[in-house]
Amino acid sequence: MPDRPEVTAVEIARLAGVGRAAVSNWRRRHPDFPRPVGGTDSSPAFALTEVESWLRSQGKIAELPLLERVWRLVETLRDPAGHPAAPLVRAGAVLLLHHREPDRWAALADQPDTRLATALPRALADTARTVFGPDAATGPDAATGPGPGTGIGADGSDGATGPGRPGLFGSTELDLARLLARLAAEAGPAAAYEQLLTRYAEANTRQLSPTPPEAAELLAAVAGVPATVLDPATGLGALLLALPSTTDRYGQDSDPVTAALARLRLALHAPAADPAPLPVDLRPGDALRADAYTGHTFDAVLCQPPYNERDWGHDELQFDRRWPGGLVPPRGESELAWVLHCLAHTRPGGLTALLLPPTVAARRAGRRVRAELLRSGALRAVVALPAGAAPPYGVPLHLWVLRAPRPGDDFRQVLMLDAAATSPGSAELAEGGRDKVRWPELRRTVLDAWRAFDLAAREGLPLPEDRPGRYRTVAAIDLLDDETDLSPARHVPPAAPPGGAAGLSHLGGRLTELLDGLADPGTLLPGPVADPAPGAGGGAGPVVTLGELVRSGLLEVHSSGAGAPTRPAATDPAGTPVLTDQDLVTGAAPGAVLDRAAAEGTPLTRPGDVLVPALGGGVARVVGPGGPPAGAALGRQLHLLRPDPAALDPDFLAGHLRSTAAARRAASHASTTTRLDIRRVELPRLPIAEQRRLGAAFARLAVFDATLQQAAALGHALTQAVTDALAAGTAEPPSAP
After folding, report:
1. What is the mean pLDDT of the chain?
2. Which of 7, 329, 419, 582 could lock 11 by a disulfide, CB 3.0 to 4.6 Å apart?
3. Please, which pLDDT band fits residue 348 given cuts at 50, 70 and 90?
4. DSSP code, position 642
């Protein structure tokens, strides 16, 4: 274990907000750049304290961000022979103390290190017993805490307390505890832990792929408001976290340390005033091989199981009671084993929802299991989601919804829903990509169709009419063939052109209006080009950087990082809209909202603000008519620039930010991305009247470009609609010219 935090070149680049190539240049050009203290020749490691000092002396950072300092200490406490997340368990225990008993921490914080080293573990153990119940472990070597069966001590240890004798905190751990106190005061204990878990998940993507909150909220909404819920592949607890606090939550994970992280996460998100103990029971162990809830059933089971497991226990589970009629899932169908496991733990009439790869619906090896799910009436819906909804983000996952059959239930219909299909107003759903999923539209599409179908099934009402291009109700017997392919795209008929001939005519008319409304390109061209006068924008006159304008008080800059909030509000649909970098690039309206409580303290857009994406360049939009809306919160990877309109014209500023020169001079490059260093952007020093004259020209160009983009998108939609109509035989080809 290193006695001081170390950082790689990639991490140095993150600290300074530059690309890795910039760090390589610094090492070559600056002889005083810190020397490596570890790592390898191809991936050297540097002492964090030396790097921080050098960056500060060069004016590249004022101070190492608090989260980075916390994370470096967490990395320092990692035992190379132990679990990489073990220090996060202790960090979570410290944050839980802040969450539940802030006054107790305040009393401890003033103690000298020698007393704090023994008092803090006792305080953490007391809090664990209060939150997780009297069965929480009381010592660092116990095998249960926080809560039964997690393998973590109630004082936040993982079976060993690190430096010093058992029960003591070492000096590095005390430093971490004090930094965590600052982070908790700055962001709140729950948000602080979310940031640390995000960093851990990013650093361990091969071992951990957490379900994103939007997908978890969708599954929770499908389940309704069950009294008890099980997640047999809990991971970091995203699915359980999305459930109402009134639900008793149960879970299992093969990794006891990950189970402890999930339990702490749930406790930190529970209101501090909630009665203890926390209504959560998380147990360690492989749910397929060592089922911790044998014989127990729940109102709902939600799960995103591990995919493509070959060694899931096929040989040793041949006679398991979870397989209906002794039908053992094939060795290569681990996902279907998880489906049957979840169904076995669902009470009759209860609901099961799983996120599965699309191949599970069609692989020939699983045909017999799929057929049994249809014959029993358990399978109720298969929903095709867009790529980017959940990891692996490049794969368009399916959502399977099942109900455990009741005796005498003869319902045998299946809802096939293609939520990834293109539809008017929701074209982004078909494009894929994590940041392109329009979650409000996706939630509405899935929940409206499922709830109408499920209500009809439970109450014996007429089933909803099929909607071509979106969903169709199919009799189970019609799916039982040689393939038993449950892919929605195979069964949902294509959508008719919107509005038929009248709709096509409307699209054509709208396209004509846009093209007619375009300005004459000749009016946008400059006059005769002459040698530019000094200060006239030709590069020969004096310039000023945006950083200098910030220091002089003429410009405010607000930047959001990769972890900026972009979640849709599950309980506050009238909350604050969130503008993402993708919305800004495409010119789309905000596609998500924040709960008003979560939006407090975040900067909101105002008329005259200029918005710029942090990654890439060439895009800058002014808030106001025809641009981004006012009153929106910043999503991830955005810069908000707020100029003093008496000294700096917004359209003039936006025009220069869109210029090629700005992107070239102020960009830094990583291996796959280009980041705009906003403070290095240069502007010519011009009187405000001249700025406004140029700004008006920039604004006309921006309108022209936006209209061109709208016309191109509408032209593509019209072309696709006519193509589909001709292919379906619902339209006649036009007369040859």
Report:
1. 81
2. 7
3. very high
4. E
The 8-class DSSP code of residue 296 comes to -
DSSP 658-694: HSHHHHHHSEEE-SS-EEE-GGG-EEE---HHHHHHH
Which residue is associated with the tokens 């109630």? 154
Residue 720: which of 428, 422, 386, 513 has the closest Cα?
A: 422
User: What is the helix (H) or strand (E) element at residue 174, kind and residue range?
Assistant: helix 171-187
Report field, pTM of the whole predicted structure over 0.70: no
The residue among 258, 290, 224 whose CA lies nearest residue 151 is 258
Q: How many CB atoms lie within 10 A of CB 279?
A: 16
> Is the pLDDT score of 430 beyond 50?
no
Q: Is 619 within 8 Å of 659 (Cβ atoms)?
A: no
Q: What is the token pair recorded at 555? A: 């410009």
Dihedral angle computed from the Cα positions of residues 45, 47, 50 and 51, in that order, rounded to the nearest 10 degrees: 40
603: tokens are: 């900067």
In the structure, what pLDDT confidence band is assigned to residue 150 with cuts at 50, 70 and 90?
Answer: very low
Helix or strand holding residue 640 (H, E): strand 638-643
Q: Nearest CA to 317 among 298, 357, 344?
A: 344
What separation, in Å, do the N-terminal and C-terminal C-alpha atoms of the chain show? 78
Instruction: Output Rg (C-alpha) for the chain, integer angstroms.
Output: 29
Pairing assessment for the beta strands 248-253 and 280-284 based on DSSP bridges: parallel
* Among the listed residues 409, 350, 354, 349, the one whose alpha carbon sits nearest the alpha carbon of residue 376: 409
- The rounded distance, in Å, linking the Cα atoms of 516 and 510 is 10
* Three-class DSSP category at 588: coil
Helix (H) or strand (E) segment spanning residue 541: none
Whole-angstrom distance, CA of residue 288 vs CA of residue 473:
32
